[in-house]
Each structure stands twice: as C-alpha cells, then as structure tokens.
Amino acid sequence: MTDLLKLSLTILSLTLVQPAVAVPTTIVDNYIGADAHGHGDVIGRTSDFEITSMDVSLSGSMLSVSIYTTFAGKGDDHLFDSLTGGKGIGYGDLLLSGSWNPYGSAPYSGDDSSNGTLWSYGFALDNRWWNGSDTSGGSGTLYRLDGATNDANTLLSGDFLTGGTYRTGQEVAVDTNGLTGVGTGSWSIVDGSSINFSLDLSGTTLLTGDEIALHWGFTCANDVIEGSIDVPEPGILLLMASGLLGVAFQFRKSKAG
C-alpha cells in the first residue's frame, strides 16, 4: 500500500470516527443590551459587574466556556440583599442557540428578551449563589427551551430584584418549570477572574448548524455578554479524504498499467 493511500485511509477513518473540533474563539464584550435607564455597558461598579470577554472552544460534543468578569467569586457576597429577598446577586445561566440574531447593530443597545435571539437551550446552574469554595465545582442541567418567546423560556432580570437600578428585560436564567433535561455539565469559579462551564451538547441540535450563539449575565444583568462561534464542517475533511483516495487509486492504476 502506498504512503498516499495510507494517508488517505487514515484521514477518512479519522473523519468518520472523530468528532469535529472548533478553533478556540474569544468573544470580546461588545454587547450592551437594552436599558430603560440609559446607562452604558456596565451599570454600577465595574469592580463588581464588568464582563470583559468569553473564551469558547468545542471538541466533539463538549463545549467549554470561560467568561472573564469581576463578578467571579461574588455570587455569595449578598450584594443588594435588601432588593433580592436576602439572596444577593447570583450567577446567571448560560443560554445557547443555533444562530445569533441580536436586534440592531453593535453594540446592540436596543436588544433585549423581546426582540433579540430566541434562545433554544439553557444550562441551568445547581446553585447560582455558590461561593466557589468547593474544589469539585458545581453541576448543572442542560434544557431544551421550546417556548415561542424568551419570556416564556427564561427568567428575566426583573424576576430576581424588587427594585434598584439594573438592566431590565434581559434573560438571565432558565425557567425550568415543566422542562426535561437533555444533558448535564459542570461549572466552576476562579475567584476574581472567571466563571467556567463545561457541557455536553450531544443531546441537542446545536452541532448540526453553522454556529453556536451564547448569552450570559448575572441575575441583575448589570453587564451582559453575547456572541457566537463557528461550528466546523466535517464534510470538508470528508471531501479532502475522498479526493486523496481518488488520487491514490488513480496512482496505483497507472503504476499497474
């Protein structure tokens, strides 16, 4: 067997059995989101509520997300207890969709739950007020969101606060009532640095499209990040492998003749 034929068969076998791997993507926080009060990107103290970026990678069906924010490690600080029933501001759930369709243009200052991307999946945290002291991390459940609107599928920032200043109309958590999970995952905190998610998308349709959109914020939505990554095309590798096989067999045929 020629080296070219061996290489072709190797690529073809890897294409058929290996899951697609996407190039890691950094999404910079260029999303503001609608705010009836007219504030800019961050409402309140940037030392508490700023989100700077989100690193996203996909390996097979496993999605890994790291969101860099000054709020990391503050989910148990009881910020604004008097406005949150004593719970404070918590970490939001990670919302996902097969396409990103924000309202308007960057920095999307008119986008909210009523006019932006319809989120089709949500990763709900087991304890959004977790303090990160458990080194094993937290867990969560991935749900399919079948409602016709984001308001039907999610809890908005106003559902967590009784007053004060916050970004209104932003989807921040999964409304799990009546939903059945389609997957699981884990999450962790790097104090003062990032909140990290790892979840299996094999029970979803997110791997069959061209992109995966993501949305995250804390329960007050004083800052929110949105964006998308490209999903790799396994078909490209398959075409390449098929082409190499054709060349290899043609080469063998010419040698035999």
Structure at a glance:
With 257 residues, the chain is of the alpha+beta class. It has helices at residues 3-17, 46-49, 150-153, 234-256, and strands at 25-28, 51-59, 62-69, 94-97, 121-125, 138-144, 154-156, 171-174, 181-190, 194-200, 211-217, 224-230.
How would you describe this protein?
With 257 residues, the chain is α+β, with helices and mostly antiparallel strands. It is built from four helices and twelve strands. The chain has a ten-stranded antiparallel β-sheet, with no helix packed on it. Strands 7-8 form a two-stranded antiparallel ribbon. Helix 1 (3-17) runs antiparallel to helix 4. The radius of gyration is 22 Å and the shape is globular.
Give the C-alpha Rg: 22 Å
Q: Please provide the ordered H/E string of secondary-structure elements.
A: HEHEEEEEHEEEEEEH
Number of DSSP helical runs: 4
The main sheet comes to: 10 strands, antiparallel
Average predicted local confidence, pLDDT: 87
